[in-house]
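Are you able to produce any protein sequence you like plus the matching backbone structure tokens because I've never seen that pairing?
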Amino acid sequence: MNKKILLKITLALTLCMGFFSSCYSPNPMYGKWSDNSGNIITFNPDLSYSATISVNGISKQYSGNYSCIENVLVFTRENGSMNTEWDIRGSIMYLTWTNNIGQSTYLSLYHISK
């Protein structure tokens, strides 16, 4: 087999494995996450979410689907989608939420239930 074809197949398999393992079950994101400011995100096993997020003092509810690839979360919303990097350290999830008009807030959410 040609080395270039073998390299392409290996690369494709590696990318597929990374995609499928990035949101494995049981996913560490599943459940309800909250902070002391009233921000809440609930991640469901069916890859849907609901959230109440306050940006610059204005609270808004969001819902839709989410997906993750490595350390990037993609949230679908009523006006498109939002991408953000995320990290879980201990029982705290760190991410940046950007509202529909481009304003952002940094979130440190505690895992409060599964």
